[in-house]
Design brief:
Layout: H1 12-15, H2 18-22, E1 26-31, E2 34-41, H3 54-70, E3 77-88, E4 95-106, E5 110-119, E6 124-136
Antiparallel strand pairs: 1-2, 2-4, 3-6, 4-5, 5-6
Length: 140
């Protein structure tokens, strides 16, 4: 089965699968030293009080870090999140949420990423740090 990748080397299934597709998450920028994802803020990502759910911010943060992490490992290796710390700084009800992830350290077995989440006006919504483990992918 061919591994269809886009111009940044990202497998097609990353764009069209799972929670990213359900929440309309888009890849804005993807390089080994910076990943930016976007997500529309609408009722499907609100908590019961009508504001952006903090768990969605965490999901976007870890997704951005994980994508960046994957761009930094060699073939046959994968990335899994092992720790996420997020400080929610401001609420949001509409617009677009952006997550910009940059590496703090890229090691052979552990990576640490800093993720800044902001709205379309550049206001800080959340600040996060994610630790990733580099694992061997299963054969096949």
């Amino acid at each position: 089965m061919p591994d269809d990748r886009d111009e940044a080397g990202i497998p097609a299934h990353v764009h069209n699968n799972g929670v990213h597709a359900q929440l309309d998450i888009e890849i804005v920028e993807a390089a080994p030293d910076r990943v930016v994802l976007s997500l529309p803020i609408a009722s499907k990502v609100h908590q019961p009080f009508g504001i952006l759910h903090g768990g969605v911010s965490c999901l976007l943060a870890e997704s951005a870090a994980s994508l960046g992490g994957q761009l930094n490992v060699r073939e046959g290796k994968g990335i899994v999140g092992i720790e996420l710390n997020a400080s929610h700084l401001r609420s949001a009800t509409t617009g677009t949420l952006f997550a910009a992830a940059t590496p703090v350290r890229i090691g052979r077995s552990i990576q640490v990423w800093h993720i800044e989440l902001s709205d379309q006006d550049g206001r800080s919504i959340c600040d996060a740090r994610c630790t990733l483990a580099v694992i061997d992918l299963p054969a096949g």
